[in-house]
Structures are given as C-alpha cells and as structure tokens.
C-alpha cells in the first residue's frame, strides 16, 4: 500500500502526456503554414514532428537508465525497446524536419525533465513500478493523437512519421504492460483526467544558436530500421551522419 500511495502521488504530480502539445498548443491546428512538395503542412503537423522529437529526448535516456537500474528482466526488456524505438524515430525526425523547415529541440520540456528526475531518484522495485506506470500513461495519452494526425494529415512525410510512431508507441505500451506492474485503474484515470498544465511546462526550449543537433544513437544490436522516405534510396538512409554529436 505504501508503494501504491507513492506511485499515485508520483503520477498525479508528473505522469501526463509526455510529448509537447498533447493538449492543443497551436491556436489553429488545421491552419496550413506551408505548402511543400510533399503536401500542405499544418500547425498540427508541425507540432507532431516536435512532439516525437521531444519524446525521444527524455524516453531514450530513461531507457538507458532502465538498463542500469531495472530490477526485473521485463523492465530491462522494455528499456531496450525504448532505446531502439526512439533512436529510429529520431532518425526519421531529423531527416524530415529540415525538409519541412521545422526547428526541433535539443532538450526535453520541463515536464519531461521532471520524469527523468523522478526516475533518477528511484531505485529497486520503486524504480520499476514508476518506470512502467509513468511510461504507460504517457504512451497511452499520445496514442489517440498519433491516430488523429495519421487520419488527417495531407503531408506525405508527416504520414510516414505517424505510421512509424504508431507502431513504436503500441510496442512501448505493450512492453510496459508486460512488466506486470501497470496499475490500470490509476493509469486510465490519469489518461482521462489530465491537469491543465501551463504551456511553458510542456514546451521544450528551442536550440541555442549554433548548438550542434543532438542525435539519439541506435544501439549496436538494433532491430528497428527507420522507414525509407519518398524519393530516398535505401543506401541514403544512414542513421547517424558523420560528425554529428550523439547521445548514448
């Protein structure tokens, strides 16, 4: 009961939509902000690309943390999935962002940094429990948003990213549930009754001028390959351009 109470407080304080703009950040999400050769780009499309980038900037290091601190084999497995999935998503985001003239962050939002700080302070069973539940809430919360983008975007590149994100998030939801630690009643309550957080807490800071772009390095034994983009050859889909700063 003590663990359950601590978990409840942790989720109430922190574990709400992990990606920027799960609640609408844009004043007019359907407004077309650019006409590109891959189709019109709306505010919602742009926000989605930033969301995927921001999610990786906290979930990838949490996956690395889980490999070191996870107390159960299932949490270790879930951590590997986080690293693998977000490295592949990061590759796609870093390719399409300049093609669509979208600026992507190099740091997570204050809310997302709070998730990292909470898990960094945990250990043992408490780490495993908070890890599974926080990540189950955040992935469950974004799942419907991905479906909406996939169903409404007219931009081919955004559609490719939405397909990839849908498969990745479903995989991450599944591995969190496979830990056997998810408190479904608490998680579903958190997903359906999120607090209204100020936009500053949900927004990652813009990259500093001249700051190198952070790369989420694919693991050596990666089993997830980013999709080939329209007009791109397989040989041109290298995950980490030479000389680019990496994480991991």
Describe the protein.
- There is one protein chain.
- This protein has 248 residues and is mostly helical.
- The longest helix has 29 residues, at 124-152.
- The protein is globular.
- The strands form two sheets. It has a two-stranded antiparallel ribbon with strand order 1-2.
- Helix 2 runs antiparallel to helix 5, helix 4 packs antiparallel against helix 5 and helix 5 crosses helix 7.
- It has eight helices and four strands.
In a nutshell, what does this entry contain?
The chain is mainly alpha-helical and 248 residues long. It is 57% helix and 5% strand. The chain is built from eight helices and four strands.
Question: What descriptive keywords fit this protein?
Answer:
248 residues; globular; mainly alpha; 8 helices; 57% helix; two-stranded antiparallel sheet; 4 strands
Range of strand content: 5-15%
Number of DSSP-assigned strands: 4
Task: Identify low-pLDDT runs.
Answer: 1-26, 238-245
Instruction: Please summarize the sheet with the most strands.
Output: 2 strands, antiparallel
Structural class: mainly alpha
Question: What are the secondary-structure elements, in order, as H or E?
Answer: HEEHHHHHHHEE
The rounded Rg comes to: 17 Å
Distance between the termini: 36 Å
Number of DSSP helical runs:
8
Helix share, percent: 55-70%
Mean of residue pLDDT values: 86
Globally, the shape reads globular
What spatial order of strands do you see in the largest sheet?
A: 1-2
Secondary structure blueprint with pairings:
Layout: H1 2-13, E1 32-36, E2 39-42, H2 43-69, H3 73-99, H4 110-121, H5 124-152, H6 156-177, H7 184-192, H8 199-202, E3 215-216, E4 246-247
Parallel strand pairs: 3-4
Antiparallel strand pairs: 1-2
Helix pairs in contact: 1-5, 2-3, 2-4, 2-5, 3-6, 4-5, 5-6, 5-7
């Amino acid at each position: 009961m003590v663990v359950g109470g601590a978990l409840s407080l942790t989720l109430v304080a922190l574990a709400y939509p992990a990606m920027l703009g799960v609640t609408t950040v844009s004043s007019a999400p359907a407004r077309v902000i650019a006409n590109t050769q891959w189709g019109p780009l709306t505010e919602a499309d742009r926000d989605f690309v930033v969301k995927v980038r921001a999610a990786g900037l906290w979930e990838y290091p949490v996956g690395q943390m889980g490999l070191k601190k996870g107390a159960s084999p299932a949490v270790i497995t879930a951590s590997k999935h986080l690293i693998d999935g977000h490295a592949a998503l990061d590759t796609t985001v870093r390719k399409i962002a300049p093609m669509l003239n979208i600026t992507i962050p190099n740091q997570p939002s204050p809310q997302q940094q709070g998730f990292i700080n909470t898990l960094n302070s945990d250990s043992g069973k408490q780490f495993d429990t908070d890890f599974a539940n926080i990540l189950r809430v955040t992935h469950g919360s974004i799942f419907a948003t991905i479906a909406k983008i996939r169903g409404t975007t007219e931009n081919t590149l955004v559609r490719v990213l939405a397909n990839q994100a849908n498969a990745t998030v479903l995989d991450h939801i599944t591995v969190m549930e496979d830990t056997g630690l998810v408190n479904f009643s608490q998680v579903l309550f958190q997903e359906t009754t999120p607090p209204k957080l100020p936009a500053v807490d949900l927004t990652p800071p813009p990259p500093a001028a001249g700051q190198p772009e952070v790369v989420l390095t694919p693991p050596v034994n990666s089993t997830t390959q980013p999709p080939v983009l329209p007009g791109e050859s397989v040989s041109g889909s290298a995950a980490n351009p030479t000389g680019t700063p990496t994480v991991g």
